[in-house]
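Hey, I'm writing a tutorial for new members on how sequence and structure tokens pair up, and I'd like a real worked example in the thread rather than a made-up one. If someone can provide the structure for the chain below, I'll link this post from the tutorial.
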Amino acid sequence: MRHHPLPISIAVFSIAACVAAVWAGLAGVEVVHNNHGRLPPTAAKPVAEGVAPEPMIGVAGQSAAVWNKTVGVRASLSVSYVSMAKPPRKFIRWAELKADGARPVVEILPRGHSLQSIAAGNDDGWLRALKSGINEPIAVAFAPEANGEWYTWGQQPKLFRQAWRHVWSVLGTHNITWLWQMSSRRAVRAYWPGGRYVKWAGLDGYFSTRGSNFRTVFGSTIHAVQSFAHVPLLLSETAVGPFTGHVPADIRQLFAGARRDHIIGVIWFNRAQSGSTNHQDWRLRTPDVLDAFRKAAATYQGGAGAP
């Protein structure tokens, strides 16, 4: 979920498109069809609840089916966005369809609901309806990037901690891996709800300008999180934009940094945006960029991850 509110479009490939369109209508999600590229021959390995058997590659902003075909690196995580402003019943089924065998990562966006109201239990009916649809392992992130000022739920650390713990108590832990998801651009410590309530920690950050590198985008925040959160760490949303001027080299640097810092997963935001350094065309498209990503991801998955 790139900084600032944005419309969500999800791409679904080929034969699944008709079925996906039905679910999209139910869930209020726009479907964009894409039939280009090639399908990799092997399926993603299943991810057991809360366990990362090997470094994971994930996709946000696009369906896993389209990603798998066009990028050629099988996704083991697939992000879907669930707004509390809409009924939740169909979202989990949609997330499973969109994931194409990968584990769904469901980001709960408290649009139209205050953290105070959620913490007080006023929205438990919505949460229970969501819970009733969780029948397979998923990851859940509540109020992502709460340490930033660009969302209505942002920069309210005390209320965020209270709301997180309440949502955790209602949804429980069965079939759920709890992902605490913060922006790498802001301080994070005050938003930590406690180790009991988190299985994975995640940081969102982008290579968006010529001065971007792993250290400036993630380095100090990774070290800060590792000093208090003794759980596996993901790059829960990232990409390299064309404004850097050297996308292939930056992709290699991104994965090298993830491997060096024992990051258990990298989720790429594969969507075109425009208008500013925060909204670029983040898609992996050109042959040199795709080649750099495939090779860097293969090296990362061959030897990185949690110790």
